[in-house]
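thread from #wetlab-drylab

HS: before we spend reagent money on co-crystallization trials with nicotinamide-adenine-dinucleotide, can we at least see a predicted complex? here's what I'd submit
DV: go for it
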Amino acid sequence: MSENLTFTENVYKNFDRAIARLNLPRGLAEKIKVCNSMIQFSFPVRDGDGFRIVNAYRAEHSVHKRPTKGGIRYEVHVNADEVVALATLMTLKCAVVNVPFGGAKGGIRIDPRKESAEFIERATRRYTAELYYKNFIGPGVDVPAPDMGCGEREMAWIADTYATLAHHDVDHLACVTGKPVAQGGISGRKEATGRGVQFGIRELFRSADDVKGCGLSAGLGGKRVVVQGLGNVGYHAAKFLAEEDGCRIVGICERDGAIWNDAGLDVDAVRRHMDETNGGVKGFPGATYFEDGDKVLCGPCDILVPAALENQITEANADRIQARIIAEAANGPTTAAASERLFQRGVIVIPDLYLNAGGVTVSYFEWSKNLAHIRFGRLEKRLEEGRTHRLMQAIERLTDRRFGDDEFTNVARGADEIDRVRAGLDDTMRTSYAEIRTAQRRFPGIDLRTAAYIVAIDKVATSYMQLGVWP
Ligand code: NAD
């Protein structure tokens, strides 16, 4: 009866399915599963002429690799169980995409939509100071990033607070990722999770063999997509998928209901409408509005992209979902029981720990850039450009053909930071997908989620054994 399970218990249930297939030494699976450290703390934040107490969390799930890494959720209901579940997923996610970090996650119990920027700033700075004095933040210790309810602005406050406290640390910028580019961030981080979702879905559709089980053809052309949650991840995923030739976003679910248009929705126009009307999709022109978002979530489409909260696809609606593919952009959107139902129905779930790993992958690039103290490509860009230029001139001489000016510029252009970030992310999503499919073939009859868990747990187990922590 997994519908009564907490978020952590759902993650553990998925974990146990994978463990049953691996032959690990006694006790090691349990060691990998449990959360290493979890702090829960409260602090006062000035509010007008008084104070308010803010509750906060940070979980470091696994320290088999340092630093640990994971976002901070700014959400009024965030709780200890949720933070531990998300930290556990981070450990597995990093392993799946070969990012050398342990998993972590944080939470600040405030509603960012209702608080002033000043209050959020004071809470963020105090949260950072608390982490610093508790030794839960630092470039080699634990490196936060954005999650729900926050973004570049909050990461800049964290970096600035840490730099003030750790002024002796030359690597202070690497204490947090997801910073604005002008303050030590990296090009492409903001959209990285959504971009990774696009790349991951592309991987599945690359081979007719991989999608034929669910009754779809290869390629994204002509596919209808429904997205739940048009925040950072959902907006970018929807925008990039809509740019794929012939792919259209037919439905969007948000907090206040959902909208539908068979011909496809203009994602940027919906986002603008949400900004102008303070958050909702209601009243968006040229689409049918449904107060009950479930109608659109279960509407006729090929791919459903949950990009909001956990526990959105449960036993209550799993049988009504018409999508043939669930692309988990959010963390934990499908319960373990619903996953089982969907698998029996031949629906493919592309699991969260793989599909939304674009954020942590590009965060890894940002962290490496901060430690290197140099922008990617600064040394090579002109070198590459000059070499390709000379090669093209040689081709001209040998073939007696002239390239056009545009051809010269486009082909010879050296790669910028954004080109390198995108290529690195694409390569990561391809390699990891191939590893997950290999595991799926090795254990016939398992879904992609179990295969991804197997890949991840196997790597963490190997790390512990190589460290000599386990005989
Ligand atoms: P966000 O706060 O930017 O966006 C969340 C969106 O979901 C908002 O538009 C919100 O209005 C909407 N929403 C909230 N409740 C909803 C509901 N009941 N129904 C429909 N929509 C609802 O958050 P985000 O950073 O985009 O994160 C979304 C999910 O992706 C989370 O599960 C998060 O853990 C996961 N994730 C985020 C990142 C990242 O880099 N930000 C990385 C990996 C995973």
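DV: The CA atoms of residues 183 and 269 lie 29 Å apart.
HS: ok that's useful, forwarding to the group
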